[in-house]
Sequence to fold (260 residues):
Amino acid sequence: MVFGFTPAACGPGADSSSGSSDASTRDSDVVRPEGSEGSSRGDAARVNTAGDAPASPLQPDQRTTVRGRVVFLGTSLTAGYGLDNPSHRFTNRIQVLADSAALPFRMVNAGVSGDTSAGGVGRISWLLRAPVQVLVLELGANDGIRGFSPDSMKANLQAVIDSTRTHYPEARLLLSGMLAPPNMGQAYTSEFSSIFFELAQANGGSLIPFLLEGVAGVPELNQADGIHPTAEGHRMVAQTIWQHLRPILDELHTERVTGP
Fold:
């Protein structure tokens, strides 16, 4: 499937090196079922990093009630760029799915418009101030749009993974595969897309082959820019992610309930 990126694909005017996100989404970038967690560097000063996740081992009577953190580190796709209602973002929809399945996990939306893999390296440290049970890594689309070196992108994503695992060795990893713009040439696009598989395999993680499967290139599922999903597009993306995330959460929940 061809994913027709344009330079404005992940938020017009967004510059990950400046630490700013689009004004229309900054105040609604956060999934807030309870408490408050930031999703841009500008939110870091007021973030409640404690959330629901404990820093110490769970007692038996806590294992079915304390909510683990699932951190979605991503771009404007995660942030829900262009949506009128933040509850339509795929992270919010996944929260509803998890709650309906009685899985005690909190979805933390850390999406920033225009962010690159290098931006993820700069942002991961404050997200790790509270325990992370699952890291969903949705970065790389903007690297491809800008024609950044696939090797550099791979090194940056590995650095994010390494930092997470250094703090929380048992954290699970779910990588979101993306496609590079076809005008970058076959050699570039092939190398770019293979990186996500290689990282998942090397780090014992799971892989979503293509985040926008069934959504990319379908006009009625995308906004006027042809890139960012509509509310219905986000619903479909949520289902795609849930197919890969649910087994991870089921396993973690079972481990917590039956723990030592």
Summary: The first helix runs from residue 23 to 26. The domain at 38-45+60-258 is CATH 3.40.50.1110 (Rossmann fold). The chain has a mean pLDDT of 83. Strands lie at 68-74, 105-111, 134-138, 172-176, 206-208.
